[in-house]
Design a protein that fits this description.
This protein has about 290 residues and is mostly helical. It contains 14 helices and 2 strands, in the order αββααααααααααααα. It has a single domain, classed as MetI-like (MetI-like fold, Orthogonal Bundle). Helix content is about 75%, strand content about 0%. It is globular, with a radius of gyration of 24 Å. One of its GO terms (biological process) is transmembrane transport. This is Sugar ABC transporter permease. Its main location: membrane.
Length: about 290
């Protein structure tokens, strides 16, 4: 490529690169700088180096928030991936009924988190909620989904899965429609069972889509906030306080912006580390499969 062509190529990329640097890199660097200050909403702040990180390392509330965030991600991502794949397999057909159900299952994704939490509060509330009424109708005591620490985590997980099912399902549908039909025809001629077709053809063909869904959903669920704030307010006794809710409370209730920024940087490093680990594991598995 000639020098003039390289300059022309850079000219096309430069505006987007400048916007990327301004929107993503500058806030990241500014956040790192803020995390090394003791500052509130009205003051200029003072430099404290790594003191905020040392406080976080000894803060049991922050430790609990990390654990609960990882627990929620571990509860949501596998179930969400499997259920959305099953839905995509069931609805991957050119019929009007399948199109209607695809629209129904995707419709929850366009709702705001406020609407979603209101819907599920009406369902889960033990005194006047849908499940509470059903339990009383059956003569049993309603389960305290929003006041029991273990059940409250599952309430957040179910709410999030219901809300997030649409996008993974559409990604799997797009992946399924990229698989050549002649492979399935050859499998049918060999009288392969449905399980063999799924395990030997469909799932390997969707490997990249599965990895994409898992990586996107892991990054998304580690940033879970609205459901925790609106459905349980982090309770009971902080049992559903996530890392982002911890940052929100620290920044806007306690006005410790530097402390909240340090927590945000730790969350950022956690997301990057998990994403790189998943990418490394996927590449290693792929190389091992190709080397057989």
């Amino acid at each position: 490529m000639r020098r003039g062509d390289r300059l022309a190529s850079f000219g096309f990329v430069a505006p987007f690169l400048a916007i990327y640097l301004f929107i993503l890199i500058y806030p990241l660097l500014a956040g790192i700088g803020l995390s090394m200050k003791r500052v509130d909403l009205f003051g200029g702040g003072s430099f404290v180096a790594l003191d905020n990180y040392a406080r976080l390392a000894a803060d049991p509330v922050f430790h609990a928030a990390i654990l609960q965030t990882l627990l929620l991600a571990a509860m949501i991502v596998p179930i969400l991936t499997v259920v959305s794949l099953m839905l995509a397999l069931a609805l991957n057909r050119p019929t009007r009924d399948a199109a209607v159900f695809r629209g129904i299952f995707f419709s929850s994704s366009v709702l705001s988190v406020t609407i979603v939490t209101l819907i599920w509060r009406f369902v889960l509330a033990p005194d006047a909620g849908l499940l509470g009424e059903v339990a009383q109708g059956l003569g049993t005591s309603p389960l305290p989904f929003l006041s029991d620490p273990t059940l409250a985590l599952w309430a957040l997980a179910i709410t999030t899965i219901w809300w997030s099912i649409g996008l993974p399902m559409m990604l799997f549908l797009a992946g399924l429609q990229q698989i050549p039909g002649d492979i399935y025809e050859a499998a049918a001629l060999d009288r392969a069972s449905r399980w063999t077709i799924f395990w030997r053809i469909t799932l390997p063909s969707l490997r990249r889509t599965v990895v994409l869904v898992v990586m996107l959903q892991t990054a998304a669920q580690l940033q879970l906030f609205g459901q925790s704030q609106l459905l349980t307010a982090g309770g009971p006794n902080g049992a559903t306080r996530t890392m982002v809710l911890f940052m929100f409370e620290t920044a806007f209730w306690r006005w410790e912006l530097g402390y909240a920024a340090a927590a945000a940087e730790i969350l950022f490093m956690l997301i990057v580390a998990l994403t790189l680990a998943q990418y490394w594991f996927t590449m290693r598995t792929s190389e091992a499969g190709n080397g057989r």
